[in-house]
Design brief:
The protein is an alpha+beta fold and 161 residues long. Helices cover 21% and strands 47% of the residues. The chain contains 3 helices and 10 strands, in the order H-H-E-E-H-E-E-E-E-E-E-E-E.
């Protein structure tokens, strides 16, 4: 699995901004693991294990798959659910690879990503952009934007049994 300490030491020694960006993404996803609930949906997020990552990395023929997440969601107001996987490759910084698109069971996709500090993840493809901001350990804000204009904003709260 992803060796954060080893990767951080290597990134520090070569001064790679891209490597530090992956480190921040890994930490962001680690802190985001669990069940998040909102008026819109229930979303479960967990890190992929090595076997899952190896299998999924074949979809995009990745050279150096590092880590990834599994997302599952269930909408609150309609009988619909889904799941998808997101993962990154050390050889292709700034990109997130998926096993399918967000829209239905479509083809795998590639998104640009950017970490703003340690608490905001921005993913984008074309004119669509999603911002996920960790407001604290148990609260996050998600925003969907199209051509820069805010389409939807909602708050999610982490469920702690």
């Amino acid at each position: 699995m992803y060796d954060f300490d080893k990767h951080a030491a290597r990134a520090h020694s070569v001064g790679s901004a891209e490597s530090l960006e992956h480190d921040r993404l890994y930490q962001f996803w680690s802190r985001s693991q669990g069940l998040w609930m909102s008026k819109l949906a229930k979303v479960t997020l967990c890190l992929l294990d090595e076997r899952e990552l190896a299998t999924l990395s074949q979809i995009h023929v990745l050279e150096q798959p590092e880590f990834g997440i599994k997302l599952a969601w269930e909408y609150q107001l309609k009988a619909e659910s889904g799941q998808m996987n997101w993962f990154v490759d050390a050889a292709q910084p700034g990109l997130v690879f998926t096993n399918k698109s967000v829209w239905a069971d479509s083809l795998p996709a590639i998104y640009d990503y950017q970490m703003v500090g340690d608490r905001m993840l921005i993913t984008a493809t074309g004119e669509l952009e999603e911002r996920t901001v960790l407001e604290g350990d148990c609260q996050r804000r998600r925003e969907l934007r199209c051509d820069g204009a805010l389409v939807r904003r909602h708050w999610e709260h982490k469920f702690n049994p």
